[in-house]
From TrEMBL:
Family affiliation: Belongs to the RutC family.
Coiled-coil stretches: none
InterPro entries: RidA, RutC-like_sf, YjgF/YER057c/UK114
NCBIfam families documented for this protein: Rid family detoxifying hydrolase
GO MF entries: deaminase activity
A cellular component annotation (GO) from this entry: cytosol
Alphabetized SUPFAM superfamilies for the sequence: YjgF-like (SSF55298)
Upper lineage: Bacteria, Pseudomonadati, Bacteroidota, Flavobacteriia, Flavobacteriales
Protein name as it appears in the record: 2-iminobutanoate/2-iminopropanoate deaminase
Cross-referenced PANTHER family: 2-IMINOBUTANOATE/2-IMINOPROPANOATE DEAMINASE RIDA (PTHR11803), PROTEIN HMF1-RELATED (PTHR11803:SF58)
Length: 126
């Protein structure tokens, strides 16, 4: 049976989806973008701040499911400019212990919702 996970500490979905779905001990998150959940404004001033907002949103979704980044086993990063990879990776990496970091792929795409520069989704297991 699936359990829907939503929190006010991350941006509300902008379409027919939920922030995450918990199936047994497996959490499947929707992609998070850099929307400040308090103001609803996009955080796009720098790629570092944009990535940090994405990770903070993901942190809130994980917390709602009683998990942390230590529970993450797989993540996917979508970016619109591979030249930003190093900066995005530095912020992303600061949220994980490098010895227990999840599997991951990073994919450059033509565009993302609301014309942001980075979107991240994750799979976590309790």
């Amino acid at each position: 049976m699936k359990k829907i996970i939503n929190t006010n500490n991350a941006p509300a979905p902008i379409g027919p989806y939920n922030q995450a779905v918990l199936v047994g001990n497996n959490l499947f998150t929707s992609g998070q973008i850099a929307i400040n959940p308090t103001t609803g404004a996009l955080v796009l001033d720098t790629i570092e701040n944009e990535t940090k907002q994405v990770m903070e949103n993901m942190k809130a979704v994980l917390a709602e499911a009683e998990m942390t980044f230590e529970n993450v086993v797989k993540s996917t990063i979508f970016i619109t400019n591979m030249n930003d990879f190093t900066k995005i990776n530095a912020v992303y990496g600061s949220y994980f212990n490098s010895e227990t970091a999840p599997a991951r792929e990073t994919v450059e795409v033509a565009n993302l919702p609301k014309f942001v520069h980075v979107e991240i989704s994750m799979i976590a297991i309790k």
